[in-house]
Amino acid sequence: MKLKNMLLGLLFSSFLINIKCLDDIESLVPKTPSKAPDYFCTWNLQGYCISNYNSVEMRKAMNEKNLLGPGEYQNWPGKLYPEIREDLTFLLDDSWDLAQDNNEKPKDFKNDELGNASLSITRFPSFNSGSNEDNLRALSNKIKSLGWRSLGLWVACQSPNSSGDFNTEHFAKRLKESNNAGVTYWKVDWGIKSRDEEFRTKLSTLAREVSPNVIIEHATFQDLGNPCPQFISISDVCRTYDVDNCIAQAQTIRRVVEILKYKVKEDYDGNTPKGIINCEDEPYIAVGLGCSIGVMRWGWAGRLPNGDINQAFPESGRDYNRRIDEVIRGIRWHRIAEPFGVDNDVQIGPNQEKDYWVKEKDIEGSRNKVTTDSLMFVSRRMNLPTISESYNNEQPRVLASKYPNGCYAVVTVGRQLEHTHVFKEVSVNIEVDNFENPIGIFGIYKQLTIKTNKKVTPSKCKVYAQDLKSLDSPNDITSKVSLEEDKLIIPGNVINEIGLALAKEGDKSDPGLVLLVKEK
């Protein structure tokens, strides 16, 4: 039996499935952490902990006391996401490298500390035992000792001088220090050179040369004038950038589709970037379109500590901070199938609809409407999904992707209309090459029909499904579904039952499960 286990483990290792024997599957969700470039970002949490989303005050909040202190809303890495810390980089956002009293965003970004990329000893006084590399290593080790995969850092897109022009010597030094200290991610954001492709290309090229363990993430700045989604072509990871959370899903899908139009190109040293899109805090969209995740919600739901409305994550709409389970499920999917780079193999449907949101007076001070057009059907590396019902403008969006390792994912995405989160059940149809590999199913359905090009013998098969929050044995749902030679039909209530099996009380996340059809 031991030899048989070893052989079967090798056979299915590309799909990360641990199978003990043909009828005894230990878990469809691997216990081994993902290697995907996913992270938790502190920016919105910086505002929450001080009950103030003014950017100056949020920068002040980036310090050792809030990061590691004993207070109720402090000790972030010690309290958040214990289930998936080992899958995530913990990323310190804006101002970790500025003096504690340097918090203004200067006109034209003229600030000689921006782009410094050296741990501020006035913000982190306990991490001041030696060189910048020593200090970063001590902080990195502290973060990893709390269970996180690694430490990541926000970096302004400029050199720390009046012009901001690329300073090779400066960045080579800082990148080497990060690499040696165990820092694995730089989120390169706004700055004097934020829209300068040459600057960003030089930084990525240099990083690959001197700091092979540090991923450089760039940003696209769509919807902000002078858009630059082409930055994906030079990026290992490229972020879709900030969105209005009240209509975040529609905005994010639109931005991802715009970036998918591009291909990667060689850098100055002839290296080809990975070209992975980071769609920030939308884990199910990331799953549906092969993207990485930049988590920004944290689970302390409701109003701010001082009683004010949480402007970053208001309870109206999707109530993000009561949707923590879907973050866990999305990150866990990356243990099965990792994000993949742009390759132009994308299909988009003919339909486009508006999501719109009338913001509440107590959030914005006046009633104003935010609107975004976005496509209704998108797929990567496979045919477009379809729905069986007559088309209407309140139906969910549907995303689907075939991953390079042969796995599939399908996602339905609800709508934001007027001042309501609308999620209508529809019958979704997708096509796959075969039933041999895991299939991720996310969202709400009337039913899901999966057609296959490779026929099976239903009497010789079992169908297993497992909540992606679970690391235990999957459920045998063979009797609850309809399996034919070339088709599997899964009722929506079964998707809800399995995909929410481990739902935390009060959590509003949509279902998320992994399914496998297995011959007996």
List keywords for this structure.
520 residues; alpha/beta; eight-stranded parallel sheet; eight-stranded mixed sheet; globular; disordered N terminus
Describe the protein in words.
The chain is an alpha/beta fold and 520 residues long. It has 13 helices and 27 strands. It has an eight-stranded parallel beta sheet. An eight-stranded mixed beta sheet has the order 11-14-16-17-21-27-23-24, sandwiched between helices. Helix 6 (132-145) runs parallel beside helix 7 (168-181) and helix 10 packs parallel to helix 11 (325-336). The two termini are 17 Å apart. Mean pLDDT is 92; it is low at 1-22.
Strand content range: 15-25%
Largest sheet: 8 strands, parallel
Number of helices: 13
N- to C-terminal distance: 17 Å
Radius of gyration: 23 Å
Question: What general form does the structure show?
Answer: globular
Structural class: alpha/beta
**Uncertain segments:** 1-22
Main sheet: strand order: 9-8-7-6-5-4-3-10
What kind of oligomer do you see?
A: single chain
Please give the structural blueprint.
Blueprint: H1 2-11, E1 18-21, E2 24-27, E3 39-41, H2 43-48, H3 55-60, H4 64-68, H5 76-79, E4 89-92, H6 132-145, E5 150-155, H7 168-181, E6 183-188, H8 197-210, E7 215-219, E8 237-239, H9 248-259, E9 276-278, H10 283-289, E10 294-295, H11 325-336, E11 346-348, E12 352-358, H12 361-364, E13 369-375, E14 377-380, E15 386-387, E16 397-402, E17 408-413, E18 415-418, E19 420-422, E20 427-432, E21 439-442, E22 447-452, E23 461-467, E24 475-476, E25 482-484, E26 487-491, H13 492-499, E27 512-519
Parallel strand pairs: 3-4, 3-10, 4-5, 5-6, 6-7, 7-8, 8-9, 12-18, 14-16, 17-21, 20-22
Antiparallel strand pairs: 1-2, 11-14, 12-13, 15-20, 16-17, 18-19, 21-27, 22-26, 23-24, 23-27, 25-26
